[in-house]
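User: For a teaching handout, I'd like to show students what a predicted protein-ligand complex looks like in token form. I'll give you the sequence and the SMILES for S-adenosylmethionine. Please answer with just the structure.
Assistant: Understood, here is the input followed by the structure.
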Amino acid sequence: MPTSEAVRQMFGAIAPRYDLLNHLLSAGVDRRWRRRAVALSRAAKGDPVLDVCCGTGDLSFEFARMGARVIGSDFVPQMLVRADAKGARGGSGAERPRFVLADTLSLPFERATFQVVSVGFGIRNVENLDAGLAEMARVLAPGGRAVILEFTTPPNPAFRKLFGLYFHRVLPRVGNALAGVKTDAYTYLPNSVDAFPDAPQLAARMESAGFVHVKYEYLTFGIAAVHVGEVP
Ligand SMILES: C[S@@+](CC[C@H](N)C(=O)[O-])C[C@H]1O[C@@H](n2cnc3c(N)ncnc32)[C@H](O)[C@@H]1O
């Protein structure tokens, strides 16, 4: 697991092309995944939502679109600059998310502040997974829900093999080449997914962090999954 400092540097470097590559390398499927995460969160209009590791804010904007009051947090300023710029272009009529610089391992919020805390493709990069989950639980109000959208290991062995060819052979070459800077961020991506707990293991880690009623749903043949857990 890379240190927080290494993760900061990596995302700082790829921030300018992050959105473009996200949509390109996932063939636009990431938008559908974010919408599904918002639906499974059962967030209601007006609910206070914190989207940690928000990057350029795509998941935050998805919550704002359905009427939630959203704060997005990330520890890389270059990502937040882009999130702010997208918000300024907005024009959807929805209330704009507010973006704040914050480490997910030490959130600048009182306990029990939010109804939903979300994280999209972020928790895998947090230096200490269990501490990150505990911090998400801390800022959730009783009955509030954490929603984790993350790449995972496809459960079907044949599909896993097929997807592995794309994920490990094609994506790193294309991603690193198109990132616009010298980076191995798109080699790190599949390697970090391999090292990350699979869906049942992540559910167990959420339970250990104090979440109850933990459920997960695979997306697109198990390339990604959405986990939802509640604080008692
Ligand atoms: C792959 S991006 C995901 C961005 C966004 N959530 C999305 O769905 O596109 C991961 C983000 O997590 C952030 N991150 C990683 N560790 C973090 C930490 N400890 N605290 C805050 N942000 C962190 C990185 O800066 C990066 O912006």
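For the handout, you might add this sentence: Residues 4-153+197-230 form a domain with the Rossmann fold fold (CATH 3.40.50.150).
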